Amino acid sequence: MTPEPLERMDRIERVEKWLTALAPLGPVRLHYQAPGQSLVLAFGTEAAADPPCSAVPRLADPAAEPAGAAGPARVAAPTPPAESAGGEPVKAPAFGVFQAAHPLRPDTALAPGSRVALGQTVAYLAVGPVLQALRAPRDGVLLAWTVESGARVDRGDVLYRLS
């Protein structure tokens, strides 16, 4: 037996409850991508006011929302910026807070120019209380960090470049 699909409002209410639960963490922006679909959900004034690109169309009908309504803003995903030349971009596997080093061992951060081996921990992604090791996809040299340690990242954001 296959489960009944959730009604549209049930899905929206679940996402809103989830984002509300994340509110104590501060402004949150989640980016969801599936084949042929892309959606960015922003919660909090800073996240909603500072979208990843300057002109982001809204998916929800603004007339249907009461003025000054609290809750997540539904916005379309931005067009990714053109990739700069030099090295293979390594992207975030999920949304979270990027950490160039383990929080308990800040002296372990790699510097640009460092050699890395396949599977070596290069950085970390904090997703709530979980710290996920980000491993090198292949042998190479870390060319540059493209985000600062402590920055919030979305799934698919380029974290660093590997030669």
Protein model, in words:
With 163 residues, this protein is mostly beta strands. The protein folds into two domains: 8-75, no CATH class; 88-162, RNA polymerase II/Efflux pump adaptor protein, barrel-sandwich hybrid domain (OB fold (Dihydrolipoamide Acetyltransferase, E2P)), CATH 2.40.50. Helix content is 12%, strand content 33%. It contains two helices and eleven strands. It has helices spanning 8-22, 45-49; strands at residues 28-34, 37-43, 73-75, 88-91, 96-99, 115-116, 121-127, 130-135, 140-145, 152-153, 158-162. The strands form three sheets. A four-stranded antiparallel sheet has the order 4-11-9-6, with no helix packed on it. A four-stranded antiparallel sheet has the order 8-7-5-10, with no helix packed on it. The chain has a three-stranded antiparallel sheet with strand order 1-2-3. A hairpin with a 2-residue loop joins strand 7 and strand 8 (130-135). The longest helix has 15 residues, at 8-22. It is elongated and about 50 Å long. The protein starts with 7 loop residues before the first helix and ends with a strand. Mean pLDDT is 73; it is low at 47-66 and 68-85.
Structure characteristics:
163 residues; mainly beta; OB fold (Dihydrolipoamide Acetyltransferase, E2P); 4-stranded antiparallel β-sheet; 33% strand; elongated
